[in-house]
Input
Amino acid sequence: MTTQADWRSYRVLVVEDEPGLADSVKYSLEAEGFDVLVASTGLEGMEYSRVHEPDLVLLDLMLPEMSGLDVCRQIRSFSDVPIVMLTAKDSEADKVAGLELGADDYVTKPFSMRELIARVRAHLRRAAKAGALSDSNEVLRGGPIDLDLDAHVVRVDGDEVELRPKEFELLESLLRRKNRLAARHTLIDEVWGPSYFGDTKTLDVHIKRLRQKLEKDSSNPVHILTVRGLGYKFVDE
Ligand code: CA
Output
């Protein structure tokens, strides 16, 4: 797994107008080895996003002049950088609006620095993985199944099978752990994200659909097996 040293080159932009909070976030992230930039207005936040190309943006929603929501929308017009919003407890509508505008996650004030850093790491990890995949020309194989990451195509015995996006990601996670246990929480984390709080039955429903699409007899699967109480396992035969 990743050690702390691997995070040292990551640059985090903090857009926060409250100097005390901006300072303590900056201090905590720097103590973990991140390269930190602070912008105190929305306009500055946008400029820094464009010019300094941060790896992640922590974006306060309550900013003077230009709101965090506008900043979020603007950044999304030119960048896929992970955006984590910093929101007040009572601004449920803002959280939803922010997520709809393309923010990846939110942290509610007051938050612990530990929690914030854990979120930052989780999002950087996901972004790094997504970036690595988009550059690859990788085909994952298991039994009669080929998953072509570049072409985003799945074939069973050479015949293309249509998968929904989450089904594709789930199959990818299973194939990357071929013949090993894929724990439930690992699959949920990889496919639905570290901040997924939904029903874990969602995973089982997606497994069922994968079996229907990929197995000869979905009620007697030979590739996508259940490891009772723990998760699933993809086996070749
Ligand atoms: Ca503020």
Observations:
- Residues 1-8 have pLDDT under 50 and may be disordered.
- The first strand starts at residue 11 and ends at 15.
- The CA atoms of residues 133 and 149 lie 7 Å apart.
- Residues 17-18, 60, 62-63 surround calcium ion (CB under 6 Å).
